[in-house]
Amino acid sequence: MTQETGGFAAFNLNPNILAAVAATGYEEPSAIQHQSIPIIMAGHDMIGQAQTGTGKTAAFALPILHRIDPAKREPQALILAPTRELALQVATAFETYAKQMPGVTVVAVYGGAPMGPQLKAIRNGAQIVVATPGRLCDHLRRDEKVLATVNHLVLDEADEMLKLGFMDDLEVIFKALPATRQTVLFSATLPQSIRAIAERHLRDPQHVKIQTKTQTVTAIEQAHLLVHADQKTSAVLSLLEVEDFDALIMFVRTKQATLDLASALEAKGYKAAALNGDIAQNQRERVIDSLKDGRLDIVVATDVAARGLDVPRITHVFNVDMPYDPESYVHRIGRTGRAGREGRALLLVTPRERRMLQVIERVTGQKVAEVRLPDAQAVLDARIKKLTNSLTPLVADAESTHGDLLDRLIADIGCSPRALAAALLRKATNGQALTLAAIERDRPLVPNSAPRERSERSGDRPDRGDRERRAPVPLAEGRARCRTALGARDGIAAKNLLGAILNEGGLAREAIGRIQVRDSFSLVELPEVGLESLLAKLKDTRVAGKQLKLRRYRED
Ligand code: AMP
């Protein structure tokens, strides 16, 4: 990977931070990052109006990391988040961006986990504390000086914090912080209650808001599909089965994602290629030419790489990752419906990104209808239709070219014409599932209904394991996969693993991701933050009478 930092270099961030950003594969700062990073770097207080999906976490994490002193082993920045889930996400983002800053540590502080290790991590000198307000107040009750050295405060999703009733806790926290600190407030909306907080607790704040002009998008049929982040590839593969497309462009956020998705598509037989900023200009042109003339049907691109792309064949745009703002959404979907033709745009939305969807609908003045994943019957119908379409033109004259051969094969093999035709079909379709039962069996683990925010994570159905082997599921951000040598043959079911980890590890249920039980081993997804101490805690845990011995698992 090249260490290109694109537009990020202009910020004059600490080179170690820039290097970590380059390693994530981000190509350009998002709009909120463009505006916020210089303000926060300069030490001003700030009010940012932005929702999840705009890149707001990096918008404050990068400049805050720039401003802390890694040599000082004491809390310097406090980030408050409304939920444990967001706190973990933010903590993981900080760890990612601080990867090349030796000595910088991050602690996530939230309810449902024991207080002792959290307090210890703070006292041991974690510079970045990411906390939910309720649990942080519990800590303050034990040690009112715990935040005395914090000189940067970020309130993330402030409106959500107030909705969840954290107002009083926030006041307690403000009092425990030095008055000279820098304060940054991010909120999707700015109701009066938030303005009042800003008035009381921010000093001369600068305002940042992403300008959203109304945009028109005509001739493009838009739809969205709710899906969990780790199921996107499977969802894309299912959608491709039933969408009648000519050429298609898929948008993702990072260079790595372009490569991963393009190779998943190629593996399924699609003519697909990646397009990102690391690919040399002449190679990029070759990709676009191939898409134009049909040597390629699918291009998986980042926004930067697809700039200006004009290929009339494009009938579909898949927004696999959410765009940062409505403008880039409109820009992306404008890649289809060229020259007055009709186009279709699909947007994958994870539960946390629903707000962004509403913003897009408001700005474009159009409802983006919800669609569900195709069921097995729809997939079967689409496959048979494709087969019919490919055979129909051959039927007209194949008998004259291959009829005699057919007679001979029937005689040589000694079978009926129906048996021979069936054998030829099996060969021609190359093992593709063409019955409902076979499709059901092969189906990737994608629910056919909208995912709820915290549901169906554990996958505590042991029979899922074998199916997943064929379609390995990418890990969700902030999670690590761990392995135990206990599996179905040891009498283990997912619920036993879940119970043991919940009880002994002191984790909340939502903190535990997918559990896959295979015959001779099992895989469990756990939060990356605090993983080592969790594994240490589970060291002596036994399940079904045997030692669990959970270890971090690396696929490659
Ligand atoms: P957020 O709005 O902070 O929840 O970020 C949404 C997603 O965008 C996260 O998965 C980030 O890793 C990703 N992201 C943030 N900034 C960039 C960027 N400049 N380029 C590409 N991806 C980004």
From TrEMBL:
GO terms for biological process: cellular response to cold; ribosomal large subunit assembly; RNA catabolic process. It catalyses: ATP + H2O = ADP + phosphate + H(+). GO terms for molecular function: ATP binding; hydrolase activity; RNA helicase activity; RNA strand annealing activity. It is found in: Cytoplasm. HAMAP family: DEAD_helicase_DeaD. Belongs to the DEAD box helicase family. DeaD/CsdA subfamily. Its EC number is 3.6.4.13. Residues 37-208 form the Helicase ATP-binding domain. This is ATP-dependent RNA helicase DeaD. Residues 451-471 have a biased composition (Basic and acidic residues). Keywords: ATP-binding, Cytoplasm, Helicase, Hydrolase, Nucleotide-binding, RNA-binding, Stress response. A motif (Q motif) lies at residues 6-34. Signal peptide: none annotated. Pfam families: DbpA, DEAD, Helicase_C. Residues 219-379 form the Helicase C-terminal domain. Residues 444-476 are annotated as: Disordered. Residues 6-34 form the DEAD-box RNA helicase Q domain. DEAD-box RNA helicase involved in various cellular processes at low temperature, including ribosome biogenesis, mRNA degradation and translation initiation. GO terms for cellular component: cytosol; ribosome. InterPro entries: DbpA/CsdA_RNA-bd_dom, DEAD/DEAH_box_helicase_dom, DEAD/DEAH_RhlB, DEAD_box_RNA_helicases, DEAD_helicase_DeaD, Helicase_ATP-bd, Helicase_C-like, Nucleotide-bd_a/b_plait_sf. It is an enzyme of class 3 (hydrolase).
